[in-house]
Amino acid sequence: MIENQKPEVRNQKGLQTARACAVLLSGFWFLVSGLLTDCHQRAATPLAETAAPTQRALRVCADPNNLPYSNQKQQGFENEIASLIAHDMNARVAYTWWPQRRGFVRQTLRHGDCDVIMGIPSNFDQALPTQSYYRSSYVFVSRTDRHLRITSFDDPRLKKLKVGVQMIGNDHVNSPPAHALANRGIIDNVAGYTVYGDYRSQEPGRDIIDAVAKGDVDVAVVWGPQAGYFARQEKVALDIVPVSPQIDLPFLPFVFDISMGVRRGDNALRDQLDHEIEKRRPDIERILDQYGVPRV
């Protein structure tokens, strides 16, 4: 569903919030606790899958419906990476499922129901991060047959084209692309698409990519993993171009490192995961390639 929201130029406090929210589209739209809504939460307690008593478990906190990252059928790239690491640990993956909304970290990792989140911003302060295992970017998405190949927010065509942008949904937590467009006065021709999408759908984050394919918007600015994954499923060819520069001065970044996260103080598990990331980096790269995740 298209939400006709108009991003506005914010004050310094709003800009700081935007920086903190910049990586929410990596699958962690819940990370700014208290700013996002609790809509679509399905249960009052996490749904956990417990391992057999005699088998070691890698206990993972994950969203049951958040492709391309994870789902309950374990079809996301974070599911595959978790299975890869668990195999090396002679363990099985035991999931605690919880929608990635407000309270996710508190209700899962901090509550002790699980031990690792497979994808967090590397500077996320509510968990202890591993080394990063990929670095991605917001991208411009357009139909190949339009030959737009827009690479910069300063492209003058953006003032005339219909532009799709992902919106967090709160006045002070718009995504970095929304702020970048607003800072350039690109407002009236912008269509906002909620990052949550319709949680009843099997692919709730796909709407904005479908809009490009159908011609509802000329170009969209989307977080890379989501763009790359859903673009491959469209019937028409789509161009995916990383935005440039990587930082909109004075400091509004569009490129982010993504790590795994464990409870603060759990250095032993963090170190073990660091070892696995180094050991399995070629395999992790292969999985990311299979899901179309753009890296920079």
Task: Summarize the structure in words.
The protein is an alpha/beta fold. It has eight helices and 14 strands. The chain has helices at residues 12-21, 77-88, 104-107, 176-183, 207-214, 224-231, 267-279, 281-290; strands at 47-48, 57-62, 65-66, 70-71, 92-97, 116-121, 128-143, 163-167, 190-194, 219-223, 238-242, 247-248, 252-253, 255-262. The strands form three sheets. Strands 1, 2, 5, 6, 7, 8, 9, 10, 11 and 14 form a ten-stranded mixed sheet that branches. Strands 3-4 form a two-stranded antiparallel ribbon. It starts with 11 loop residues before the first helix and ends in a 6-residue tail after the last helix. Mean pLDDT is 85; it is low at 1-44.
Q: What is the CA-CA span between the terminal residues?
A: 30 Å
Mean residue pLDDT: 85
Strand content: 15-25%
Unreliable stretches: 1-44
Total of helices:
8
Relative helix content: 10-25%
**Rounded Rg:** 19 Å
Strand/helix succession: HEEEEHEHEEEHEHEHEEEEHH
Shape: elongated
